[in-house]
Amino acid sequence: MYLFEGLRQQLAEYLPPDQVQRAAAAFKLAAEAHKTQKRRSGEPYITHPVAVAGILADMRLDHETIMSALLHDVIEDTEFTQEDLAEQFGSTVAELVEGVSKLDKLTFDSKEELQTENYRKMIMAMVHDIRVILIKLADRTHNMRTIGHLRPDKRRRIARETLEIYAPLAHRLGIHDIKNELEHLGFFALYPWRAKLLESQVKQARGNRRELVERVQKEIEARLHEHGINARVIGREKHLYSIYKKMLSKELHFEQVMDIYAFRVIVDEVDTCYRVLGALHNLYKPIETRFKDYIAIPKSNGYQSLHTSLKGPHGIPVEIQIRTEEMNLMADRGVAAHWLYKTDESSGTTAQVRARRWMQSLLELQQSTGNAFEFIENVKSELFPEEIYVFTPEGRIIELPQGATPVDFAYAVHTDIGNTCIGARVNHKVYSLSKPLETGQTVEIKTAPGSRPNIAWLNFAVTGKARAKIRQYLKGQETREAEQLGERLLRAALGPVNYNDISAEEFARVCEEVKIEDKSQLLREIGLGNMMSVAIAKRLLGEVQQLKDEQPSNGRGLAIKGAEGLLVSFAKCCRPIPGDDIIAHVSPGKGLVIHRRECKNVRGHEDEPGRYFPVQWDNKPDAEFVTEVRVEVVNHQGALAKLTSAISATGCNIHGLKTEEVDANIYYIDVALTVHDRKQLADVIRHIRKMPDVQRVARLRK
């Protein structure tokens, strides 16, 4: 029992004696169950559950959580079953232990492995009772503290899993104490050299800065004293891993990250926070745009504070967080803070209420997503949020992740509003549905009863809820509607030919050509805009072969045979001209876009025959086409003038010129010309080649 003594004293500080006794009984059973087992370090195994319970006791968690922590490996590693524990300690403790045991069986080698049923199970266990994840986080923290005894490969795997999964989870639940420790230990285990080097740099930098830090701290304390404000002022150190991440993600030098001086001012009342803010804005000049009020609008994990940035002595940036003692406790412990005082579902701290709300939203997501992969994709976006806060026209605050658009907002308000959304007004001005929103905007959604979600929304919707609901709606609606629309479009494209006269064999042939299973799927692809009805109609009528014999019926010859009734444009990337071997890309909305077959933008088109259309030039097109040639010329006075006069002598118009210096005396001149066909272009190129200063001339390929 001597191992339990330290924990007993910890528990006695905040739990009644009968609950401490129950925890002692749980310890007895755990010690008995694990008596033959040893840890890698050679210590008795029971030291691990006691340490885990100690971490949770620091957070002042309830006796059931402490008992479950002491017993968390019993079901998995010993003869005892869930029923045995339920009989002795009650069903809640038994369920918590079972929940943690299930989580222990989950292993993740990487983020990719997250995208499996395993992670879904973990999230669901957490939704069932959030204390499961608190025990798991404490378990992981103690394992990370003793990770030195493991093999290097295992150490790296556990460290990576800690940084990618458990630290973000702790952050999402607002438990910054554990998040910071997990990141610190994970960083040293995964990148020992980087961590040690960075640590020594930080120590050195802190030594050099000590005088300035002390001066700023004294000035802040003196100013608050003048205003009669009681407050604790503490210098805030950036954590090693957060310095590393900042350097990595924002590509900053170490000096740029370290030249910010950060302080925390802790007071007793919320009102005092704002008085402190006023006093400090009088002391140093505030930096505009760098003020955030997380007290009025807390972060999604319940974090509350005022953040402001000031220009301190010598113009150094000083970052200050102002918060109450309670907010400080909340920032460190999040969901776990004040657990004891939770009596019913509606009470509890902001973090608990928000965590519960988050859990609830996960449960809803789980029910509406089709598979584990989709669910995980959505949860990941929820796990790493940088929030923005926007308002409904009635003044209700809606919290969304960074990058969220009006579509996300519409679904956050109500699924039906999302499904029937047709436009948005932000701050009374029309606003694009795909444009990200910013904190503080007032968003108004316009809806129309008959409208439906657009598949393109998936390109910019970022919240899990919006993406899941759009997919869900489209899956339900698209099949039948797309097929009907595809049939209507195909009937129109066939013109005088009756759709019903086309045989099943013809449809089967075209389906094979465009690599599609059957007629229904073909119609659906047309309806969804993935294939163009005119292109399919021409294939059905076998007109790909007949193009050679077709003559345009209107007086003026079309440049492309068989393209009557179609919108035709020529690609700017490769600028095709008559005589080139060409292919048309079928682009919904743009019609046929003609490319040269060798153009890199259409290479590999054989894989998608439904999107490409074989075309030929008309024998007598009367249009002029723009093409580009690159001339490499020795630079001396008058070279450009000679070149332009040589080109105009061939009867071509110059459409545009670009020059680029290669070295001191060689220039590239890119000339855009209008020509009728390849023959005329060949004449122009021959003509330019004869010029004395021209080194090379060739048609430009992009």
Features:
guanosine-3',5'-bis(diphosphate) 3'-diphosphatase, single chain, HD_domain, transferase, four-stranded mixed β-sheet, alpha+beta, extended, hydrolase, Ubiquitin-like (UB roll), six-stranded mixed β-sheet, Hypothetical protein af1432, Beta Polymerase, domain 2, 702 residues
What is the level-2 CATH architecture name of the largest domain?
Answer: Orthogonal Bundle
Kindly identify the CATH topology of the largest domain. Answer: Hypothetical protein af1432
Radius of gyration: 35 Å
Q: pLDDT under 50 segments (min length 5)?
A: 338-347, 544-557
Mean pLDDT: 79
Structure description:
The protein has about 700 residues and is α+β, with helices and mostly antiparallel strands. The protein has 6 domains: about 1-195, Hypothetical protein af1432 (Orthogonal Bundle), CATH 1.10.3210.10; about 205-335, Beta Polymerase, domain 2, CATH 3.30.460; about 385-460, Ubiquitin-like (UB roll); about 475-545, no CATH class; about 555-615, no CATH class; about 625-700, Alpha-Beta Plaits. About 50% of the residues lie in helices and about 15% in strands. It contains 28 helices and 19 strands. Strands 1, 2, 3, 4, 5 and 6 form a 6-stranded mixed β-sheet that branches. A 4-stranded mixed β-sheet has the order 12-14-13-15, with no helix packed on it. Strands 17-18-16-19 form a 4-stranded antiparallel β-sheet, with helices on one face. A hairpin with a 3-residue loop joins strand 13 and strand 14 (about 590-595). Helix 10 packs antiparallel against helix 11. It is extended and about 100 Å long. The relative contact order is 0.04.
